[in-house]
Amino acid sequence: MPSSAVLFPSFVWFLYLFCFLCSLPLAICKETENDRQALLCFKSRLSGPARVLASWSNKSFDVCEWHGITCSKPYPRRVIALDLESEGISGSISPCVANLTSITRLQLSNNNFSGGIPSEIGLLRRLRELNLSRNNLEGNIPPSLGTSPSLTYVNLGVNALTGVIPESLAYSSSFRILWLNGNSLGGKLPKALFNSSSLVDISLQQNNLVGSIPVVTATSPPIEYLDLSDNHISGKIPSSLGNLSSLVDLRLTGNNLVGSIPESLGHISPLQILALTANNLSGTVPPSLFNMSSLTFLSLGNNSLVGRLPPNISYTLPNIQTLVLSTNKFESPIPASLPKVYNLRQLYLYNNTLTGFIPFFGSLPNLEELDLSYNRLATGNWGFMSSLANCTRLTKLLLVGNNLQGKMPSSIGNLSDSLEWLWLRENQISGPIPQEIGNLKSLTRVYMDYNLITGNIPPTIGNLHRLVHLSFAHNKLSGQIPDTIGNLVKLISLKLDENNISGRIPASIGSCTQLEELNLRQNSLGGSIF
Fold it and tell me: pLDDT by residue (tens digit) across 519-528?
């Protein structure tokens, strides 16, 4: 028979294990109850549709069944995600949310949250994703966010945040995505932001940031997406931006940048999108920039750039889909190779000093928008119009303010069924309006004013049931206004002033009930308007 001295240690060990196992559910319950109380505290400051937080009840003990809550699967079941995106919730974000110590995702975007961002959120050591975008949050960003060891995604965009961008965000070793766009943030750009060892995506557009773009001193930082558009950033574009060798998308539109475009940008081999529009840039475009086979989007409009468009542009920019060179000082014919850029969708060359004939763009099956306005381009035999019939996706054709002369061809009626805008104003077009224009049933805006057009307004104009704006003003039109004009029931603006139109104003105009602007002055019309 074993002695009691041998049994006693075994009994003590068993008793200890029994007590531990009995107390475990209590510990589990305590952690779960802490999460429940944190959520009820968070709810206490909120209002919104009853269905959203109806399950968040003091009488309900299983928080994992509450709307918008995700819990971990192994016990203890802790709250690991709070997702209340686009739920119509208003109120403030309670610091109680920091008591959800196991949370990894906090998603409250597209609601009506107001007040400040609690600094306590920076204490959530397991938080990886924070999305508070599209609310009415105000005040400064809490610097403590930069000390969170797990945070990789931060989206505070489209709020009313003020103050400066905390340096701590730039020094975070975990941040990969930082979106602060659409706020009222001011001050200068933190230098460390551009030399981060972790940041991949930085969106700071539509703020009040000032100063210059910091120099990039790090070797090949991992930044792939950088958007500083629509701020008040000044100075030159530093050539050191070329050190961002992983850049795919660079947008600096709508600032006060001056000087020339650095050659180094043309050596960022992955770069697909480059937007420098609406600055004060000058000089010529670096040859390296027009020689980037990776580019799909190049926007340099609204600057003071000079020079000639490269004749071999279809070979040097073979993958370009959007090309914006408008409102600069380019002087040259449109390169004959441009219509060979097969993937081209949008081409904006307006407001330059381009000369020569309009090329045949019919070899561009994907072309959707073509704006060559305010140059010195000529029509030749209008063959370009026939070729455009092959561009079956064309929705906008703008040729305003050029040297277009002669009669419009009947082939204008063969243009894309999708064509919505046809702008030919301020040219020297003569002859009648082709009746085939009535084939273009998707048109919403037609401007042919300030030309030398003669003849009658074709009755087929009444086929254009989607027209919203129609102007044939300042021409030499004669005859009567066709009764079919009354078919244009969506018309908001109709301008036929300063022509030689005669007869009675058709009663059918009374069917145009949405008409806000009607100008018939300086014709020979009679009768009442309605």
Answer: 999 999 887 7
